[in-house]
Write a structure and sequence with these properties.
alpha+beta, 6-stranded mixed β-sheet, globular, disordered N terminus, disordered C terminus
């Protein structure tokens, strides 16, 4: 130990040696010694540390007074320090002994005298004397380490807030700002106002980056259920073990349980509506339900937190509700932690409850700014964080940086162009290897970790405003001044307003830049609507999931075929093979021009099997077209489909959103093929269709993948049959059949035999198709993981070009079989519709015919390795109420013995049919879907221009309204007015028109036909197609051209109108109303008679243009606002 005298002498020596003003340093040390009490035990370690720091710092500069003696003095003091400390080592970097550069000012400010000295010394002279001051203070012995800010062990931050609408854009911006500026891990949000009809676009815009939304809307079945709702925003990588929605009548309650290394943590959000509201219940009911919830949480065996809006004044000790719940919390060892105002009214109504003996150590604070009348509450918990997610590795090529001219020169100088191999396999290998090598040279593959990127709309101005907000917040936290609080709120409000403006401007610029590119335009619109959601896949590792899918898809086909083979089905009736006059022996070669057309019309989709991206291939088409043509022609001439083209990558696609993602049966395999494979298939398909059409070999009852036929023509003919049956007091039994894995179980031997015997495909053409089907390989790809290749001995690949056409040809005999069973039918791909009309008294016999037909169909399918899916097969009886009431039995027995009850509604090719043919349920679902998209359009309307809004409205909403709208012909006004209401809302959304403004001028400015005129337009267009082409034949049979008479009007085509019927439903029949609509058109619009050479028939485009003009004039005949046209009132007498 050193006494005061020794310390003074030692300090004097040091200061005189290293100071430019020794007298001043001595006076400072004397002042410090006099003002500070004697230190009881001053060890040498701090002194030696301070001396060492002073010496080392002096070596970096040249203070006056050292001269040439500086190095020697430094060595002497170091040696003296070692002797005095008895040889104990000291560390310059250790906090116990020395001072680091960052700790110097902290320790200086922590000293009583040091603080005074620093405040007195001017800033410009601080750097010249700081080392002397620090040394003197250190030697005085009055040094205590500054602990710095008190650091909490809390590493899980919860924000509890009554948000009052989580779909409001201003509120969403506020939540995003809280998440980024306060490191929130979980939001507990009350009154989210999210409902069952909230669109994905609205839900997708809610979560901040890196967060997931979990919401629980208020039960719509409860009276007064509008609003309310709870939601959690959880930051990744926290994962949820369970979610529990409590069905309570007095409050909304929703909990999530998180999986953490230290154990599970349950967070329960609760919202109790205030008394006097529609949804409110007596407090006794709430207390009973809350006791049950608290008891359930206490029995979980792990930590829990209850947060939310209780609407009970915790600060009011005279409130009986507060006293009662406080007594309950005390009796159950629960603690309510909030003791500060959480509402604009100055009351404590937002609570945080935990167990008394919790180890979470909650620390609470309130945020002074909010978008609602409640303040956000920050709850910091001490929990162990989960392991961070590993960085995601991505691989990419900088295709946009490629010098295209040099790239094409390298291709032209390669052996692929100069010395192409003569045989097909070698040519394809050379094609792939050459292009891959050139691409690697110009754009090598880069593997990097994916990092989080800042939003593209985030501008430097926003960054400055955010910094200003955080600075204003820190100033307010220090003083809690009302003036600074208002300043902070103003800055935060300006920051949020600028965020909204920046987003709108960013998307406006993006949409304007891609106005000429429809693909880029729709991609931007999807970004705006948050529709680019990641694909739904099982939660297991990608490699494990890929192998599991590969095994499942293979076993599924084997299991289906074994079930079919093991079933005791009756042999199907013999179906005669049609006579053939012509045969297809080979495929004609393809020209360079045809390949160029196919290449440019192909989408820019890319497969991992392609050597270069498709869009880059299109740019290099001038160099590669001869090679591509040569490859295709070699395949056609040799009758060989190369093995490299047979490889496919299967992507599992969930059948319907909302299905269980963990169940592999909810996925269908979609094949991704190489571009060259699809190009070759397109050439083959075009030649097959020409051959089938030229020889009338196509199934007349099959409407899929055929020109002039569609789902609408199928449903229109079915609807016509149903309406005429109802008019004749008949009932129609409609059976909708569905197949299990229809494409995957096709037998190759049967298919090839059918192509030869039924369609006359032989020799080289048949050899090519045999090569196409045999030895196909596939692998399942999930992410970057690819399963092992498996052989596909059966089926045609889904996602291929030829697959649907081959399936149609495979099932052609089924149509011939049904024709012999006294039933009418339609086929659309793998969807089969069977229907039969009968009088109520013939119900038993008709049902027997249907069941017999199903037995024959089932036998034929089993013989052809197709399986009828009984769970998806539907049966319904359609007729008027009086006729249906006469039936006692309404069920149908399938061949496997299962009973199908008659449905009241059934979806058929996208249209919901009901048993009275009113389409009421369909229009209800259609209106709901359209309003769903209209809300999306309203959300982004401020970010898009007028033309883009019209394009979105036409493509997304009008396409739904116009789909099969010919079935709505002459529906009752009450149903059509519902559709017109949808269109009116859409028009107002596009034009930003107020809700109660007159809609007629809006529709006229948009050049939109009203709903009734759109139906007339569709029926007239279909009639034109039938008259012009006599296709499809089942609609052409309903149209009869009136024979010519010697009148002036005979120059134009007139259709014969069927006899009138007493039943009103006949005016909904295409058979009755198509002639009426056609004959009512102006004469110049009707097709001239064939022998009138002085007139030329209109093309389809010309006819549709004139038809729309004609109907538009009927809809808006010089519209006048009669409210403004009224004469002024007469003045009073």
């Amino acid at each position: 130990m050193l006494s005061t005298q020794y310390r003074f002498i030692f300090a004097a020596c040091v200061v005189v040696t290293f100071s430019a003003v020794p007298l001043m340093s001595l006076m400072l040390y004397a002042l410090i010694s006099l003002t500070n009490p004697a230190h009881p035990s001053l060890s040498l370690a701090p002194i030696l540390g301070g001396l060492t720091y002073q010496i080392v710092s002096c070596l970096a500069r040249d203070p006056p007074g050292c001269g040439r003696l500086r190095p020697a003095l430094c060595l002497c003091f170091l040696f003296l320090g070692f002797i005095l400390s008895a040889g104990s080592p000291f560390d310059l970097n250790a906090d116990q002994y020395g001072l680091t550069a960052t700790q110097e000012f902290a320790r200086l400010n922590s000293c009583r005298i040091g603080s005074l000295l620093v405040s007195l010394v001017p800033r410009r002279r601080l750097s010249s004397i700081q080392s002397f001051t620090v040394l003197c203070i250190l030697l005085a012995g009055d040094i205590e380490l500054n602990p710095g800010p008190v650091l909490s062990n809390a590493n899980f931050n919860i924000c509890s807030l009554n948000i009052r609408s989580l779909v409001n854009q201003d509120h969403i911006v506020f939540v995003h700002d809280l998440a980024s500026s306060h490191q929130i891990n979980c939001f507990v949000l009350c009154e989210t106002w999210i409902s069952d009809i909230t669109s994905p676009a609205e839900l997708g815009s809610i979560p901040p980056p890196g967060f997931d939304l979990f919401s629980c809307p208020r039960d719509s079945r409860i009276p007064g259920a509008k609003g309310g709702g709870l939601g959690f925003l959880l930051k990744k990588p926290y994962t949820i073990v369970t979610m529990d929605s409590y069905k309570l009548s007095s409050c909304d309650a929703f909990s999530i349980t998180l999986k953490l290394p230290s154990g599970n943590l349950t967070i329960l959000g609760l919202y109790r509506p205030p008394a006097g509201t529609t949804y409110a219940q007596p407090f006794s009911v709430f207390m009973s339900e809350f006791e049950n919830v608290a008891a359930k949480l206490s029995s979980l065996g792990h930590q829990f937190v209850i947060a939310g809006d209780f609407n009970i004044h915790w600060d009011n000790n005279n409130d009986s509700c507060k006293l009662q719940i406080a007594s309950f919390l005390d009796a159950t060892n629960l603690t309510q932690h909030v003791n500060f105002p959480t509402h604009d009214g100055g009351h404590v109504i937002d609570w945080c409850i935990t167990h008394e003996q919790t180890t979470l150590s909650p620390q609470l604070s309130a945020y002074p700014v909010s978008v609602s009348d409640h303040f956000p509450i920050f709850i910091a918990l001490d929990v162990s964080p989960p392991e961070p997610l590993p960085p995601k590795q991505i691989s990419y090529r900088r295709i946009c940086k490629i010098d295209l001219e040099q790239f094409m020169i390298d291709i032209g100088n390669s052996c692929l162009i100069t010395h192409p191999p003569p045989d097909l396999p070698s040519l394809i290998d050379c094609y792939n290897n050459t292009l891959i090598a050139i691409l690697d040279r110009h754009a090598p593959l880069i593997v990097a970790s994916k990092k989080g990127s800042r939003n593209s709309w985030y501008t430097p101005l926003l960054h400055k405003l955010k910094v200003a907000c955080r600075k204003a917040e820190r100033l307010w936290n220090k003083s809690h001044s009302d003036v600074l609080l208002e300043c902070f709120r103003a800055k935060l409000k300006a920051y949020h307003a600028n965020i909204k403006t920046a987003k709108e401007q960013f998307f406006q610029n993006r949409l304007q830049s891609c106005s000429g590119n429809p693909r880029a335009l729709w991609k931007t619109v999807k970004d705006l609507l948050h529709r680019n959601s990641p694909s739904v896949l099982p939660s297991s590792a990608p490699g494990t999931a890929a192998d599991a899918f590969s095994t499942y898809f293979t076993d599924k086909i084997i299991r289906l075929r074994s079930v079919i083979n093991g079933s005791n089905h009756v042999s199907p009736p013999h179906i005669a093979t049609p006579p053939l006059n012509k045969f297809l022996t080979d495929f004609s070669p393809v020209s360079v021009e045809e390949v160029d057309k196919l290449l440019n019309s192909s989408p820019d989709k890319q497969c991992c099997l392609d050597p270069i991206p498709t869009h880059l291939l299109k740019k290099c088409s001038s160099v590669l077209l001869p090679t591509l043509t040569n490859i295709v022609n070699l395949s056609l001439s040799t009758g060989c489909f190369p093995d490299s083209f047979k490889k496919s990558l299967i992507t599992p696609l969930i059948k319907k959103q909302g299905l269980d993602r963990e169940s592999l049966s909810n996925y269908r395999p979609i094949s991704n093929l190489s571009f060259l494979s699809k190009l070759t298939e397109k050439v083959i398909k075009s030649r097959l269709l020409v051959y089938l059409d030229a020889n009338s070999l196509y199934n007349s009852s099959q409407s899929a993948y055929t020109k002039l036929r569609s789902t609408e023509t199928v449903l229109l003919h079915l609807h016509d049959c149903l309406t005429r049956a109802i008019a004749n007091q008949q009932i129609t039994g409609l059976c909708l059949l569905d197949l299990s894995a229809a494409f995957d179980t096709i037998d190759h031997t049967i298919l090839l035999d059918r192509l030869s015997s039924w369609f006359g495909i032989r020799d080289t053409a048949l050899s090519w198709l045999r090569s196409y089907l045999c030895s196909r390989m596939c692998s399942v790809k999930i992410g970057d993981c690819i399963s092992e290749s498996i052989v596909l001995p059966h089926g045609v690949p889904q996602g291929s070009v030829l697959g649907p056409l081959l399936f149609i040809l495979y099932t052609t005999p089924l149509s011939s079989l049904i024709d012999t069973l006294s039933m009418r039918h339609h086929l659309y791909a793998d969807d089969t519709q069977l229907f039969i009309s009968f009088l109520p008294r013939d119900f038993t016999d008709s049902i027997a015919i249907v069941q017999s037909a199903l037995g024959s169909i089932s036998s034929w399918m089993a013989a052809n390795f197709l399986s009828l899916n009984a769970s998806k097969t539907e049966f319904m009886l359609i007729g008027n109420r009086q006729q249906l009431a006469k039936l006692n039995q309404t069920g149908l027995t399938l061949p496997d013995g299962s009973l199908i009850e008659s449905s009241k509604t059934a979806r058929n090719l996208g249209i919901v049919f009901d048993n009275h043919l009113t389409f009421h349920e369909h229009i209800t679902q259609l209106s709901k879907a359209c309003f769903y998209h209209i809300r999306d359009l309203r959300r982004i309307r401020s970010s898009i221009d007028y033309s883009t809004a019209c394009l979105i409205a036409t493509s997304i909403v009008h396409s739904k309204l116009d789909y099969c709208n010919s079935l709505y012909l002459n529906l009752p006004d009450c149903e059509l007015n519902r559709l017109q209401f949808v269109q009116n809302s859409l028009a107002r959304a596009v034009c930003k028109t107020p809700r109660y403004a007159h809609v007629t001028p809006v529709l006229k400015s948009l050049h939109w036909l009203k709903v009734r005129q759109r139906i007339t337009y569709k029926v007239a267009s279909l009639t034109y197609g039938v008259v012009q082409t006599s296709q499809p034949p089942y609609l052409a049979d309903l149209i009869v051209v009136r024979s010519r008479t010697s009148t002036r009007s005979s120059r134009f085509l007139t259709l014969a109108r069927p006899p009138a019927s007493r039943s009103r439903i006949t005016n909904r029949s295409f058979y009755h109303e198509a002639p009426v609509i056609w004959n009512s058109l102006p004469p110049e619009m009707r097709i001239p008679a064939i022998d009138c050479s002085s007139h030329s028939s209109l093309s389809r485009e010309q006819f549709q243009t004139r038809l729309k003009t004609y109907l538009f004039r009927l809809s808006f005949p010089d519209w006048v606002d009669h409210r403004q046209a009224r004469p002024p009132p007469k003045p009073p007498r």
